[in-house]
Amino acid sequence: MKRLLPLLGVAAIIMIIAYYETSYSIEDGAFNELYDYPQIPVVNASSEDEDVTASSTEDVDPLEGLTPELELRYESETVDDGYLVETYQRYEVYRDQENQVIKSIPTDHYEYIKYKVD
Description:
By secondary structure, this protein is of the alpha+beta class. The chain has helices at residues 4-27, 45-49, and strands spanning 69-80, 83-95, 101-116. Helices cover 25% and strands 35% of the residues. The N and C termini lie far apart (73 Å).
């Protein structure tokens, strides 16, 4: 009980200080002076009247909204200094809803696996 009371007092003091600092900075604008833009959102009345429509003349990217999967594909194998070295290249693979490959894009990333040849 002797340890609990001072901890509660310290916690109460911290909460009171945090409350006064936060309410001062928001209400009086002291927080906004630190930044070039306002922290409280302002609605522009003219933007509500304008309708936003998509133009049909723009080209629609078939990959838009699709997340690429990364795959490693076998490229080659070589024997160097008693080691068999297999080379794999990373590809970005885009698939549709039916899991059909739409597009496969090779990246610059390669991985190498070495095996000791006896």
